[in-house]
C-alpha cells in the first residue's frame, strides 16, 4: 500500500474516532437527570415496572406507581419506601379514561406535574389464534393502546405548558414482528409502536421526547399471570422455558438498564436481547422470509383443542415441565418482583 493511501486511512480512522468521542461527550452532556423528577409508571407494582422503579429510585426519582391491585401496590410501596424512595401509589385501571384522569389530578394535587411518563401496563394471552375470542383482542388493545393514549393525553397539557417532558412507551419485539400464538398481544403492540412513533414526531416541538422500547424476552416472572388457552399446560411450559433460558432471554434488570438509558439519552427506539435484534433485522430485510420461518415454528407449537377457548392463568397451568430446573430463573424472578 502506498504511503499516501496509508495516510488517508489513518485520517479516516482518526476522524471516525473523533466523531465517536464527540457523540459520547454530547450524549453525556445532554443526558436527562432523573433526580428529583416525578416519574409515573403504569403497571408499576410488579414485574418490569417494579424493576424500573427500583433503578429510578436509586437515581433519586420521585415515583408514582399505578396498578389495579391495592395489595401489590402497597407491597411495592413498602419495599421502595423502606430503601428511602419517595413513592406515591395510586389504584387505577388505565383502560378506563375517567380513572386515568382522576389519577393524574390526584398526582398533580399531591406531588406536582409529571415529568416522565412510562406506559408499562401490559397483558398477554398465549394460544392458537383459533382459540382466541374478541375478548382477548379487546383486552390487549385496551391495555396496550387505549391505556397509553389516555395517560399521554392526560399528562400532555402540563408538559406542553412547561415545554418539557419525557414519555417512554414499553412496546415489545412483538410490536415489530408478529409472533405465532401471541396474535392479540402482537397486534396491540404494533398499534402502540405506531402511536409512539407518531407522537415523537409531533411532540418534539414542545421539547417532549418520546421513546419506544421493544424488549425481547426478559426474566420478570410475569408468565404466571399470562392468560393461556388451548393446550394450556403445554403452551405455558413452552412460554416459561423460553422466558427462563439465557439463550432467548435476559434479566429484567439488564433490560431495564438498556431501556432507561434510551429514555435518558432521548433515543427514538431501543430493542433488547440479541434474538430480538436479529429477528428485527431479518424482518426488515425480508418480511416474507420471517413469515416463512414462523410458519415452520407454528407447526411445532401446541395445536388447537385442550380447553379450547376457555381461559386459565399461567399459575393455574403448572406441570412437571413448567415447574422444573428449566424454569427456576423465572420462578425466582417472580418472587423477587412481586409477581407471587
Textual characterization of the structure:
The protein is an alpha/beta fold and 340 residues long. The chain has one domain: Rossmann fold. Helix content is 52%, strand content 14%. The chain is built from eleven helices and twelve strands. The chain has helices spanning 3-30, 47-58, 70-82, 97-110, 134-162, 183-203, 232-244, 252-264, 274-285, 287-300, 328-336; strands at residues 38-42, 62-67, 86-91, 116-119, 125-126, 165-170, 208-214, 218-219, 227-228, 250-251, 269-271, 312-313. The strands form three sheets. Strands 3-2-1-4-6-7-11 form a seven-stranded parallel β-sheet, sandwiched between helices. A three-stranded mixed β-sheet has the order 5-9-12. The longest helix is centred in the middle third of the chain and has 29 residues, at 134-162. The mean pLDDT is 94.
Amino acid at each position: 500500500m502506498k504511503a499516501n493511501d496509508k495516510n488517508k486511512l489513518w485520517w479516516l480512522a482518526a476522524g471516525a474516532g473523533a466523531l465517536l468521542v464527540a457523540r459520547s461527550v454530547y450524549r453525556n452532556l445532554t443526558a436527562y437527570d432523573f433526580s428529583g423528577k416525578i416519574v409515573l409508571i403504569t403497571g408499576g407494582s410488579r414485574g418490569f415496572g417494579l424493576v424500573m422503579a427500583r433503578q429510578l429510585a436509586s437515581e433519586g426519582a420521585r415515583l408514582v406507581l399505578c396498578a389495579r391491585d391495592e395489595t401489590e401496590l402497597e407491597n411495592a410501596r413498602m419495599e421502595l419506601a423502606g430503601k428511602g424512595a419517595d413513592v406515591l401509589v395510586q389504584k387505577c385501571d388505565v383502560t378506563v379514561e375517567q380513572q386515568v384522569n382522576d389519577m393524574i389530578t390526584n398526582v398533580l394535587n399531591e406531588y406536582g406535574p409529571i415529568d416522565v411518563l412510562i406506559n408499562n401496563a401490559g397483558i398477554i394471552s398465549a394460544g392458537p389464534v383459533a382459540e382466541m375470542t374478541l375478548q382477548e383482542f379487546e383486552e390487549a388493545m385496551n391495555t396496550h393502546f387505549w391505556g397509553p393514549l389516555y395517560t399521554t393525553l392526560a399528562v400532555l397539557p402540563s408538559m406542553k405548558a412547561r415545554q418539557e417532558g419525557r414519555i417512554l412507551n414499553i412496546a415489545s419485539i412483538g410490536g415489530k414482528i408478529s409472533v405465532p400464538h401471541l396474535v392479540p398481544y402482537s397486534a396491540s403492540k404494533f398499534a402502540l409502536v405506531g402511536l409512539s412513533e407518531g407522537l415523537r414526531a409531533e411532540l418534539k416541538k414542545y421539547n417532549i421526547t418520546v421513546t419506544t422500547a421493544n424488549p425481547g424476552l426478559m426474566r420478570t416472572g410475569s408468565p404466571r399471570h399470562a392468560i393461556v388457552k388451548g393446550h394450556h399446560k403445554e403452551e405455558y411450559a413452552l412460554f416459561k422455558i423460553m422466558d427462563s433460558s439465557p439463550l432467548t432471554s435476559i434479566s429484567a434488570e439488564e433490560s431495564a438498564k438498556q431501556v432507561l438509558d434510551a429514555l435518558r439519552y432521548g433515543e427514538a427506539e431501543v430493542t433488547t436481547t440479541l434474538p430480538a435484534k436479529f429477528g428485527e433485522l431479518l424482518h426488515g430485510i425480508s418480511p416474507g422470509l420471517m413469515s416463512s420461518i414462523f410458519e415452520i415454528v407454528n407447526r411445532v407449537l401446541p395445536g388447537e383443542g385442550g380447553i379450547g377457548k376457555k381461559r386459565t392463568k399461567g399459575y393455574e397451568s403448572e406441570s412437571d415441565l413448567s415447574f422444573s430446573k428449566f424454569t427456576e430463573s423465572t420462578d425466582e424472578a417472580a418472587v423477587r418482583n412481586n409477581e407471587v
